[in-house]
């Protein structure tokens, strides 16, 4: 599992890139397997992002997935993508921009990464 470190008070950006399943209706971001955020899927949009201000309780395993409708209009859930572990360290007095840490998808069509502030490097 890929691990990224961030300090309390920093901003991280969680990205989810999905395959061309048609039609996607909802993108779901999860922590420890529980939904923490969702976005309505937009036609022909394959990349989605959610910002997170890191707090003490932000440590955990993050994943994303999607819901789509089949040709009989039934809603199905994708498997969750490759898990990424966020480890929260001490406090920092500012917010950061992004530097990407990408891992190959475990589920076809889903790629996730956490964007870290400059100068922060992903741990393993």
TrEMBL record:
<dbReference type="InterPro" id="IPR007110">
    <property type="entry name" value="Ig-like_dom"/>
</dbReference>
<feature type="compositionally biased region" description="Polar residues">
    <location>
        <begin position="97"/>
        <end position="106"/>
    </location>
</feature>
<feature type="domain" description="Ig-like">
    <location>
        <begin position="1"/>
        <end position="76"/>
    </location>
</feature>
<protein>
    <recommendedName>
        <fullName>Ig-like domain-containing protein</fullName>
    </recommendedName>
</protein>
<feature type="compositionally biased region" description="Polar residues">
    <location>
        <begin position="74"/>
        <end position="88"/>
    </location>
</feature>
<dbReference type="InterPro" id="IPR013783">
    <property type="entry name" value="Ig-like_fold"/>
</dbReference>
<feature type="region of interest" description="Disordered">
    <location>
        <begin position="74"/>
        <end position="124"/>
    </location>
</feature>
<dbReference type="InterPro" id="IPR036179">
    <property type="entry name" value="Ig-like_dom_sf"/>
</dbReference>
